[in-house]
Design a protein that fits this description.
This is Nucleotidyl transferase. The chain is of the alpha+beta class and 162 residues long. The chain contains seven helices and seven strands; from the N terminus they run H-E-H-E-H-E-H-E-E-H-E-E-H-H. The chain is globular, with a radius of gyration of 15 Å.
């Protein structure tokens, strides 16, 4: 689960359903956050990666590693041991043939997985694929906490339409 990927990340393949299916197949507890979560709620902003907050715990960590291995995930973050880094709740970036994945254990504006999960929406994407998704208000909160205000007007516009 480690290696190197070359080229611009926005030029990499993007098929998030394959990634989300793998997470589901391996029963990885997580909340989908960031741009893809916003798109699933009507945001017109383009997104090129998959941001998730995984639940803590050794068993979930093992399931996450198995899911990433299943889809040929390559850790891009400079760490010696990805499993150990996950155990220390280090944020990691991965390349897969289906898209770039960022693992954020404590996204800006939140201090625990429970806080991220608290307001999560349950979305049925396919008959056998249900995901927890961060609501737009929480995505906006996180962007503000991170000082990333570039997309706020579009996110707020979608929130007003909802």
């Amino acid at each position: 689960m480690s290696g190197e990927r070359r080229g611009e990340w926005h030029e990499w393949p993007f098929d998030p359903l394959v990634v989300l299916r793998a997470l589901g197949r391996h029963h990885v507890e997580h909340v989908l956050i960031g741009g893809l979560a916003a798109v699933l709620q009507g945001s017109p902003l383009p997104t090129y990666d998959i941001d998730i907050t995984p639940a803590p715990g050794a068993a979930n960590r093992r399931r996450l590693v198995a899911a990433m291995t299943d889809i040929d995930g390559i850790v891009l973050t400079d760490v010696e041991d990805a499993q150990r880094a996950l155990g220390k709740k280090a944020d990691l970036s991965l390349y897969t043939p289906f898209g770039h994945i960022d693992l954020h254990h404590t996204p800006a504006g939140f201090d625990t997985y429970a806080a991220v999960r608290r307001n999560a929406l349950v979305l049925q994407l396919e008959p056998d694929l249900t995901v927890l998704v961060s609501p737009l208000r929480d995505i906006i909160r996180s962007r503000l906490a991170a000082g990333d205000e570039r997309q706020l007007p579009a996110l707020e516009a979608v929130l007003e339409l909802a």
